[in-house]
Amino acid sequence: MFGADTFHTAMAEIVVGTMVLATVCAVGCASIRYIPVSGDKKESLMVTMDKASIAGATMALVFMPIAIMSGNFAAENTVGNALLYNKFVYSGLALGFWAAFVVGRIRMGPGLWEVRPLAMLQSSTAVMAFLMTTMASSIGGKLVRGESMFDILPIWFPSESAVVLPIWASAVLMVVGLAALFVVFRMAPSTERITLD
Amino acid sequence: MSRTLVIASVVALLMLSSSSVANPGGNGDSDRDYTCGGSCHGDPSLSLPSDGTISISQEGDVFAGHAVAIHVNVAGMSLSSNRLLGTFILGSMDGNADHPEDHGWHVIQDPNGGSSNYVETVVPSSGSVTLSWVLLAPDEAGVHNLFAQIHHGAEPNYDGKAYSGSSRGYSIDVMPVPEGLPGLSPDWTAPAYRSSGNDDPLEIRTVNTTSLSVQWMLEGEWSPHNAEVSSNCDESEVCNKWEAQIPATMGDTRIQYQITVQNGSFSMELPWLTMGTSPAPFEGDIWDARVQSFAFAFLILSFIVSLQIRFSPWDGKHELDQTQEVVESEAPPPPPGMEEDAPAEDDEYWSRLVHSEDNPGWLWDPVEEEWVADPNFQGGDQ
Q1: The dihedral formed by the CA atoms of B77, B78, B81 and B83, expressed in degrees to the nearest 10
Q2: In a domain? residue A73
Q3: Number of folded domains in chain A?
Q4: Is 60 exceeded by the pLDDT of residue A64?
Q5: Residues of A numbered 44-73 whose beta carbons fall under 8 angstroms of chain B's beta carbons: which are they?
Q6: Residue A33 is part of which domain span?
Q7: Are the beta carbons of A66 and A83 closer than 8 angstroms?
Q8: Which of A95, B90, B106, B202 could crosslink B136 through cysteines, CB 3.0-4.6 Å?
């Protein structure tokens, strides 16, 4: 048998691997017009990267709750320091960004890459999701080994201290978030799939 | 060409992972045997002899079961760029089960404030460092040996090997305890840290003690202060549980304190101990984290989806956009003479009207079959 921490590490590695694929392909789709390849190859490359990005993001989205739950068990359902607290917060942010990426791609179809503002938004969402997921994973490395790949990169989000909202404030924010979701999915004009020219 | 590039990249990444062996950043303080089953510490194929010198000394006489400060001086060794040195204090050179605890010693405090037999330290630019362990001597009187071993890196270190060195055995004559000699309790370990702002009294457990005093000073200070000490026992009675009031510390302040225990004519001044300051206990709990996490997830999702709707080139969007109608309905009428020209359908309407000689000032609409007042008629002059 193996412990919850080993299982959590395996799940986190799947999430990180798939989201790297999704992010690279999403950025590639958004910048396809700048890639110097011929028209036919460009179209083929575009279709491949689009499918890879949605497949990677969907897989990350499926495995992320498993990774979060196994992380809960690995932490024995306690949050004893700011690093662990921030791991939860960054995981939530990553979940939000990945869900938005997948929802956007499914609702609007592969044609969204043809609309420049949408392509920029979608690739930015993927990059933000990448950063949030990487940050959550790196905090895991900090907790277990005291070091992470972010140590050698010029990027590091705040993690040593945490902004702990009172639970009532978090609950209010969650209700606001749910209400906002209801508005954008039920009351706002629904988006249509964008057909490719 | 591109396939070759991909294969070369993968091979380069694999080679990069295999080149980062050992633990050049250290493994942290802990209780360790020096040679644990062929690790790089003891494996001759993975290590080279250190060029440093190690010396051990003690402070004062040593009585069985009583505290003693053991100083390990390490000097003259090559170091890696991070100047990290790992130092063990050991009870034997057997290779395993060599922790001092396995040989009757008890670690009260290590040089970094913890209670480990292995510590890592950054060597100052002088190239020499003295590390002090406060130990309780074994209960059996006689000659006991202690050893120190080190490992470190070097710059340059082309083979990526650890440099290891060990001292000769340092013999300590542990004397039998005189009747009633006071000292620290063997089940007491000096706390390594106290949380920031915590001014709870420091609990000290002793043996054969009728009176206890504590002096403290901040690290770097020279003149110690007396701490207020209390116990629940009467004077002259042996009491082994004491509380010393040492002021609270903040930030990364380290405080040093020295305990003096007395019993009749015996007065034992124990080695200086160090206590660091740890951050205040974290206040968040698991449900705070979970709820905050999901709140952020929902807010981010709704925000990005609303942006997607905003940027979406959906045709039906204009049908729902009533902005122009509202603006037009709320706009004031144009002033007289500034009215816009009639639309084209008005021109068509007026062109079909027929003048009549019989009814001046009126026009005949053949479609509606009705008379319409002529707006251009000016009395009978026309």
Answers
A1: -10
A2: yes
A3: 1
A4: yes
A5: 72
A6: 4-187
A7: no
A8: B106
- The answer for B 315-334 residues in CB contact with A (under 8 A) is 315-317, 320
Whether B280 and chain A come into contact, CB under 8 Å, resolves to no
Asked if the Cβ–Cβ distance from B302 to A183 is below 8 Å, we say yes
Distances (CA, A) of B161 to A128, A180, B16, B158: 40, 58, 17, 8
Backbone angles phi, psi at B177, to 5 degrees: -80, 125
What is the torsional sign of CA A128, A130, A132, A138? Answer: negative
Judged by a CB distance cut-off of 8 A, whether residue B305 touches chain A is yes
Classify the C-alpha dihedral A75-A79-A82-A88 as positive or negative.
positive
Q: How many residues does chain A have?
A: 197
Give the model's confidence band at A195: pLDDT under 50 very low, under 70 low, under 90 confident, else very high.
low
The mean per-residue pLDDT over the stretch B348-359 comes to 82
Compute CA distances B115 → A116, A150, B132, B153, B284, whole Å: 61, 31, 11, 25, 29
Q: Where are the alpha helices (DSSP H) in chain B?
A: 2-19, 286-311, 317-320, 323-330, 344-351
What is the per-residue pLDDT for B320?
Answer: 63
Nearest Cα neighbor of B65 from B5, B128, B139 is B139
pTM of the model: 0.54
Q: What is the ipTM of this complex?
A: 0.91
Instruction: Identify which of B25, B285, B305 has the shortest CB distance to residue A100.
Output: B305
How confident is the model over B117-165, as pLDDT tens digits? 999 999 998 989 999 998 989 989 999 999 999 988 888 877 778 888 8
pLDDT band at B382; cut points 50, 70, 90: very low
Domains, chain B, ordered by start: 23-176 (2.60.40.10), 178-282 (2.60.40.1220), 351-382 (no CATH)
Helix or strand run (H / E) with residue A84: helix A82-108
Nearest partner of B77 among B69, B85, B87, judged by Cα: B85
Q: Which residue has the tokens 């999702």?
A: B301
Beta B170-175 vs B62-63: how paired, if at all?
parallel
What part of A 89-128 touches B (C-beta under 8 Å)?
A: 89, 91-93, 95-97, 99-101, 103-104, 107-108, 115, 117-118, 121-122, 125
Q: Could you check whether the bond before residue B156 is cis, i.e. omega within 30 degrees of 0? A: yes
Q: Which of A56, A148, A147 is nearest to A105 (CA)?
A: A56
Place of tokens 């009814």: B359
For B280-298, give the secondary structure using H, E and C: CCCCCCHHHHHHHHHHHHH
Q: Are B136 and B66 in contact (CB under 8 A)?
A: yes
Closest CA to B108 of B168, B189, B203: B189
Give domain status of residue A8, yes or no: yes
Mean pLDDT for chain B? Answer: 83
Three-state secondary structure call for residue B208: coil
